[in-house]
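User: Predict DUF4316 domain-containing protein's structure from this.
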Amino acid sequence: MNREQEIKKQAEGQDGKENHLGAAELSAEQNMNMIDGIPNNEKPRVNQNYVILENEIVGEKEFVLAKNPAAPLPYVTWERNMLNDEQKGGENFYWGKYFCSHEAARKNLHERADGEREDLRESRPSLLRNLRQNQEGIARPAAPAGGREKQEASL
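Assistant:
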């Protein structure tokens, strides 16, 4: 039995029933060398020898959490303005905040993303808020042109 047949047999499962995760991986992988239990392997994203583990995209910004086990502070969160990538010639991460623990870095990642969401909410009024303001403007009667001046002139 060759390697490909062994892998397909493993995907079927131990009791002869189909293993859905194994079948999904077999259909998604580009070649049989990539069968390892993780569907559709891609090269990890790396910045300054830190492997990016998580990301959140908010508007035009991306916030990432990355890890480098060899670094004194192995976890970092960075911000990236995706609009600047073309100018910089690739992903340009900045404003790194470094941590000893994964939990602290993960908390910071979410706080940074939530802060950007709040900034966007304040700087860009929601569509509903715009509609309400427009309705209020329509509901107010317009003042007659030069109304006060005409009244004073007639006195």
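The radius of gyration is 28 Å.
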